[in-house]
What we know:
The structure holds two protein chains of two kinds. Chain A is mostly beta strands. Chain A has no helices and eleven strands. Helices cover 0% and strands 58% of the residues of chain B. Chain B has strands at 4-7, 10-13, 18-25, 31-37, 44-50, 53-57, 64-70, 73-79, 87-94, 101-103, 107-111. In chain B, the strands form two sheets. In chain B, strands 2, 4, 5, 6, 9, 10 and 11 form a seven-stranded mixed β-sheet that branches. A four-stranded antiparallel β-sheet of chain B has the order 1-3-8-7, with no helix packed on it. Chain B starts with a strand and ends with a strand.
Amino acid sequence: RKEVEQDPGPFNVPEGATVAFNCTYSNSASQSFFWYRQDCRKEPKLLMSVYSSGNEDGRFTAQLNRASQYISLLIRDSKLSDSATYLCVIHRSGNTGKLIFGQGTTLQVKP
Amino acid sequence: ETGVTQTPRHLVMGMTNKKSLKCEQHLGHNAMYWYKQSAKKPLELMFVYSLEERVENNSVPSRFSPECPNSSHLFLHLHTLQPEDSALYLCASSQGRGYEQYFGPGTRLTVT
């Protein structure tokens, strides 16, 4: 079983839609959580860290559920420019700094 | 220059060549990383350096040799590579181990 699992998609949604991605992780010792965004043939860019209490940044909301070992990303009012691959990333406590990356969920926002 | 820079951005090399990839971070971070990203696969961590000391070598073949002369610079020396080593090689840095990482634009490597 992969340590971080994501539905690869693609998720095809119209502009203005609300879309949500989930990501599950297998190691309960996981300590830090992030969402990264990666455009085609570009480097991953940090979208947001995920805090225990949940956090929001504009149209983006991240949630953490430690009991069920999943994190989620909600995007409201989707824009064409939101089309990208969204990577779920975790860091385990006691690790050397290694981040574990999911394979990513691809989002295509259509006009 | 700001953030994390990498050179060259594209590299084509034969299997008998020796080349080096360079990474520089301008963020004052003290940890640096090399990743490999092949098509349709998740990022694979190759090496971790913290305070210029290698703290992880993720079972990478010896034809990849990292070097970290100071906290701002990281190199990946390449020799006798195989065609399956063709990939996007990404450098990243972070404030410390376990913190969010910031990536450079990557070097797209093709081994012929």
